[in-house]
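Hi support team,

I've been running sequence recovery on a batch of backbones for a student project. Most finish fine, but this one hangs at about 90% for roughly twenty minutes before it completes. I'm not sure whether the input is malformed or the queue is just slow. I've pasted the structure tokens below so you can try to reproduce it. Let me know if you need the job ID as well.

Thanks,
M.K.
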């Protein structure tokens, strides 16, 4: 989907999509072509790749050089090269030469890239609370302001009240359709069997690491719960829908119940574990709509019921209730 190209630090970046070339400026939102994939589809295509998330996780704590990622991650030369090129093309990274070191480069996070820290934090919090199967222990997060270990709390950016899924209402905006919101590419998980089991995000990748999984999860948060609705709205093959619904039930994210219309028409509804994934979804959407803008308007529009204002995600510390900022979160080794 993307073509690597040579560039200099600070220059615009072009990304080749199916029908258009997008120009990405490191510190400005990308303008999307009218009628093309919207912010939701592009964002899910980006974050639904475990290697991208692992690369970003280490970049956010200071990793900048190719060799450092090769040392830290069980990643091949070819895969790392492709991911860094793609992330640079999307202006998540800027590639810059190292002073006094010929042919040495660093991949420095842009404002757009640094703005992804809330997404990694919500994924960490969900995996920590709901997924016991981790080959490597998750790190601890400490809020430097209060000095305590914490969990992020999803809050309303307008009134700062804590928010749960039922507290937010809304749906598709001017550029929002099911077709335009399906992830733009079929993403690939790293092989857990070849690399020693699940990584840091095993179940997150099961939910968003495949274009149809991500689409079904998003549709569930939009209120869909019947097999035929998933099939008709998303346009996915019935066998794919059935396989993903079965997987989500096995993970405990969905529960199957008899339909109110007919007992032989099961409903698939989000469980408590599934609803707890809402911060990951809404933070990703919030990031995407800040950085990818369709001329028609936003893909999704949400309102906070309590204050009646447009909802934009904000994370606060559960220990001291202060707003969280990226430079105030300290990552520590597991105890």
């Amino acid at each position: 989907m993307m073509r690597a190209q040579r560039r200099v630090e600070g220059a615009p970046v072009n990304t080749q999509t199916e029908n258009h070339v997008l120009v990405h400026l490191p510190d400005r939102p990308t303008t999307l072509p009218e009628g093309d994939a919207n912010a939701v589809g592009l964002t899910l295509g980006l974050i639904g790749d475990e290697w991208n998330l692992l690369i970003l996780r280490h970049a956010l704590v200071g990793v900048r050089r190719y060799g450092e990622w090769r040392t830290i991650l069980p990643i091949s030369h070819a895969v790392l090269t492709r991911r860094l090129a793609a992330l640079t093309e999307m202006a998540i990274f800027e590639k810059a030469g190292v002073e006094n070191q010929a042919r040495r480069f660093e991949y420095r996070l842009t404002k757009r890239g640094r703005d992804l820290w809330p997404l990694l934090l919500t994924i960490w919090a969900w995996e920590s609370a709901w997924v016991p199967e981790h080959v490597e222990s998750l790190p601890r997060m400490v809020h430097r302001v209060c000095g305590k270990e914490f969990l992020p709390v999803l809050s309303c950016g307008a009134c700062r009240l804590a928010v749960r899924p039922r507290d937010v209402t809304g749906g598709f905006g001017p550029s929002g359709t099911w077709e335009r919101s399906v992830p733009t590419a079929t993403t690939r998980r790293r092989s857990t069997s070849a690399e020693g089991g699940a990584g840091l995000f095993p179940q997150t990748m099961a939910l968003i690491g495949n274009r149809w999984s991500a689409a079904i999860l998003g549709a569930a948060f939009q209120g869909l719960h019947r097999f035929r609705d998933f099939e008709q709205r998303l346009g996915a093959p019935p066998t794919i829908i059935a396989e993903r619904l079965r997987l989500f039930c096995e993970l405990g994210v969905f529960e199957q119940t008899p339909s109110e219309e007919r007992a032989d028409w099961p409903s698939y509804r989000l469980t408590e574990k599934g609803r707890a994934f809402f911060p990951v979804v809404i933070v990703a959407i919030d990031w995407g709509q800040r950085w990818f803008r369709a001329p028609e308007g936003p893909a999704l529009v949400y309102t906070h019921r309590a204050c009646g204002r447009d909802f934009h995600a904000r994370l606060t510390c559960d220990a001291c209730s202060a707003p969280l900022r990226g430079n105030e979160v300290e990552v520590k080794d597991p105890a």
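--
Follow-up from support: It reproduced on our side and the slowdown came from queue contention, not your input. The longest strand covers residues 101-109. No action needed from you.
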